[in-house]
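Recap quiz, item 2
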Amino acid sequence: MAATARLPSAGRSPGAPPRIIGLDEIRAALAGVDLIPGIEAAFVAYSSGRAVVPPVGELLLPDMQADVHIKYGYIAGAPYYVIKIASGFYLNTEKGLPTGNGLMLVFRRDTGELAAILLDEGLLTDLRTGAAGAVAAKHLAPARVRRIGIVGSGTQARHQLRMLKTVTPCRDVLAWGRHPERLARYRDEMAAEGFTVETTADVGGVLAACDLVVTATAARAPLLLRDQLRPGIHITAVGADSPGKQELDPLILRRADVVVADSVSQCLERGEIAHAVRSRCLRPDDVVELGAVIAGTARGRTGPEDITVADLTGVAVQDIEIARTVLEAVLAGERT
Amino acid sequence: MAATARLPSAGRSPGAPPRIIGLDEIRAALAGVDLIPGIEAAFVAYSSGRAVVPPVGELLLPDMQADVHIKYGYIAGAPYYVIKIASGFYLNTEKGLPTGNGLMLVFRRDTGELAAILLDEGLLTDLRTGAAGAVAAKHLAPARVRRIGIVGSGTQARHQLRMLKTVTPCRDVLAWGRHPERLARYRDEMAAEGFTVETTADVGGVLAACDLVVTATAARAPLLLRDQLRPGIHITAVGADSPGKQELDPLILRRADVVVADSVSQCLERGEIAHAVRSRCLRPDDVVELGAVIAGTARGRTGPEDITVADLTGVAVQDIEIARTVLEAVLAGERT
């Protein structure tokens, strides 16, 4: 299993100071690294009960319109445990600062010593979310994707599309965004990365024209509706990571042949699945977990006409896995 | 209030990298700093509802006989929020490594940016626990302390005695410890710091001979018994910070005129008070909070014959406060 035990006594030697790894070094370490196999393995570990992931810690700062989340845990047999701190400070835009921020702490699981501090400023959360989208597409999208639909034009819409490169040869994209200028910028940037991007002001047209659709917005009411759905489509929803957010009509989940959650327990509390269960469009028993689909212990897509939906709310095993990947890449770079 | 708002826009400038502060720098920054007023203010903030302190996060690693605790929060109006990670790896002794480890992260409360990483390896937890003991003694011990009793001969027994220097002129000490060699070392080290230390193999004799007794052991059954108690004594128990630990006979808490908790809610779950409440020697309503005693909103000692007990289990406000103190001392040192 890629996520476990590759370096039984890795990290620093006992007594050595922790490795402090900044954003540039993280980017350099990850250049050329394929995140998909590790994230797949992490989901399998999670769904097979081999991950220890306590409840998410939450600190609210209402006067700053801010929240901080602490996700942490380890995968059985792995040499590290990881603590991730991620924050959203929603007044930062007015100050010319990014709203999202974060860092990851990597500790040796045998001694508790701090092996590394990854000052990623939230990049690794963005990347592992993008990688999860690609994993979902790899296991659930139809065999031949003719057109990718992207709903949203922000940072995560970029990561989602970029990561899909590793799991589909399709480079033809139809993109929708609320803000025309931001959408045009999205088109230009993604074109520079090898995609052919058409933009649209009609979000329903994305569902009608694409086989693989990713939604990555902060919408708080459904953007995609049931009546635009067509057979064979796969939809990955990554935007709704907190209880108030929603991107999909619950009727889409009712119509879907397969509904997949990154974490069933978490998706029953937040995300598209929570909305669909609350509105009685879906029963909890009808939801399967991504790690089980990857492992083959749960049924995913069975044919080209199936409609599949993946709801990704973000699980600590993804953070644990990407932190390990960065640290090992940095250490490997030092050895050569 | 010392704990709040002294530096409304302190820390780093927006966009600047975080300050990484190692153990030597922390020691240097704290040299000559009186921690007592800040810790007092932090307890007052906590007991008056001005602190936001979510439930402690806990990660257990049973195969390593280890646990990790995450304490975090902020004091209303303060420029920072703080996340502390503290671990106990109980097989480390065999590896020649300290069992306790930790670090603190200090974030700007206005932007969420990481202002500083304090790589204190657990020292700040030890110091803030020592300072809390001194605060308890300051507000609860009899006016004239003739002899200090120390039960335990480990790291925290050292910090407790050292911190008492700032709140009592008494330097006469009677110390008990389970291991004669470690106790002799304790005596010699504390003598070098200006104390006159007699040692004893009779723990009951400590209660009989001292007016101010601090227990700082990892005992899992009562060491101090009710029948050795005498009028006027103050006892601070700091050892029992997790549910299985216990240092005091619950009958001592029944006999006491005043029972003080650093956090009532936490002490009802762990520590001496939890044991006494469970064995019906104490009612929750009879427990007052240290911050309320300091603020004068709850009754502490009323006369020289009162028996008082303080049960200290450790509250995140202490971590928040000492992290602020270190960061401000470092920044002040850079300005001069």
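The radius of gyration of chain B is 19 Å.
Chain B is about 35% helix and 25% strand.
End of item.
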